[in-house]
Amino acid sequence: MQETSPCSLREKGNKFFEAQQFAAAAECYAEALDKIKADLDSSEDLQIPVRLNLAASLLRTGARIEEVEDLCSEVLALQPSNAKALFRRGCARQILAKRELHASDVYQARFGPVVLGNSRQSLMVAGVTGVRCCKLPSPAPDFTSESLGLPVRQEGSLASCEAGAAEPSGPFGTEGAPRGSRRAA
Length: 185
Fold this sequence. Notes:
Elements: H1 6-18, H2 22-38, H3 44-61, H4 65-78, H5 83-95, H6 99-111, H7 119-127, H8 157-162
């Protein structure tokens, strides 16, 4: 049997993940994590991405969802504001029907002070209007701003208000409305 390092197993898992072979990727990441746990001198630099990659692979397969929640919680014990860990744990909790906990994790991942792993993740967390986990096997629902109770941006509503098509309303009339939207009486 060939001796492999956690780093090489992680790279192998990354290749499987890119090829959308999520079960094979999960096996590589799990083996890498076992080797990391056995090495008492291993650093956070490797164990955090391996745990997160294993969690992502398991989410994609729809298997061992409780383990996904545990893996992400372990990462959050080391980095409490890790956006990937919060988001993936939120996805797992959604599947496990832990609604209140999942909404808190996903909201924190999107709006809280976060530690972003890379630029793609920062774009995903900061730039989406409809929050969505990864593509999961069928009975898992998609995350949207509406399902999470987050404000939904209405297309054209600000433009029509500024054009005078609609008057700002509410208990205080135009008070509290954006300055550019107030019209003289």
